[in-house]
Amino acid sequence: MLKKLLVLLMFCLTAWGANAQELQCDVVVNSEQVQYTDRQLFTDMQTRIFEFMNNRRWTDQPYRANERIKCRILINLTEMPEIGVFKANVQVVSVRPAYGTGYESILFSFIDKDWTFQFNDAQPLDFAENNYSSNLSSMLAFYAYMIIGVDNDSFGKLGGATAFDKARAVVNLAASQGAGYQGWKAFDSNRNRYWLIDNIQDPQFLAFREGMYNMHRQGLDLMIENPEKARETVLSVLENVQRLQQQKPNAAVVRAFFDAKSDELVNMFKNAAPAQKQKAYTILSQTDPTNNSKYEVLLKR
Hints:
Layout: H1 2-18, E1 23-30, H2 40-54, E2 69-82, E3 85-97, E4 104-118, H3 135-155, H4 161-177, H5 193-201, H6 206-217, H7 227-247, H8 252-269, H9 274-287, H10 292-295
Parallel strand pairs: 1-2
Antiparallel strand pairs: 2-3, 3-4
Keywords: Signal
Pfam families: DUF4835
InterPro entries: DUF4835 (IPR032274)
């Protein structure tokens, strides 16, 4: 009898582990710029957003507890134009592990300056795929799907398609029913939520998405085993990114790529053979001149 109970317990633990939520999301709400006497409101906001991101199943994919995607949302509140309405700049970051190491690679990094939302600690933070609930829940859901999609693309070629479809659906609903909130439409700016998903799903960016798989599975994950071959793979990916940048200057997804990867690329190539270092520097300095001061270390012998 005891043996049967132990077997049943192990089965339940295994089943639970395989059905964990997708995200392991750290949430920080910085309210220093907002003058409001009830500071508990901001603590409640942080807690509610944390629970929204972490306690929800976003897909029907099986995830074990140790497979949850590590990510972070930093919400920097800048203004409260009226009671219960907030404006913010937000940074969303996700990481993935490199195979056989303790290293975590930044996979997605995006700064969104178009956050305006209502928050009331007495009102539930709800989300349903086919209904618009609030701008806050829509923005959070959009980035949840983006994080999952980018992560899936890095482990399987074009593996993020379903999550990206869901992100697109969030954009379409918010654009049509979101009462004029910024960030959901093409004309709001050239680097917002609309353009992020539009780039990802644009057929011209197909090579970019395939490159994310190659860079991570055939590049980063092989750095310990065969660093020279891994770097050659990454150089091929960078050549594709360079061509894309020439075709689509200032594309939101390319800017997000370099925001995530500039430091990592320097570390990857700074100990490479001279020819690889020179090639990497040439591509990076031309394609991402904003970070050229970082890349100059590759010119040193």
